[in-house]
Amino acid sequence: MEPESGLDTNRLREICRDADVLWLTARPVSSKISALWLREKLGILAPHVVSVEDWEDKIYVLRGLKPGLFIDDHTPTIERALREVPEVESILVAQPYNAESWAPRQKINDILRGIG
Predict the structure, then answer these.
(1) Distance separating alpha carbons of residues 2 and 50, to the nearest angstrom
(2) What is the residue range of 25's domain?
(3) Which one of 45, 60, 104, 106 has the largest count of C-beta atoms within 10 Å of its C-beta?
């Protein structure tokens, strides 16, 4: 899998260097595999990755950690986060497959420019 075309990886690395970023993923691979991908593909040197078995489990992590910002591309995850963890700002990354969502959608580079 390759990073999104046009992704501002320099800005992403800046954010990861200057902030406490948690990569929360629902993938059938270990956190170590995801961290390796982030290092190799995006140049994120020491990514903190938490893998959950199912996308719905992300909500439990959000409830526990209460991060300042949650960004995801999965419509049901963001919609549920907006309803159940409203104190966490949740943004849906605009993708062709989530265009019908009622959740706020933004292009990833616009999100990155707005951080910090």
Answers:
(1) 20
(2) 9-114
(3) 106
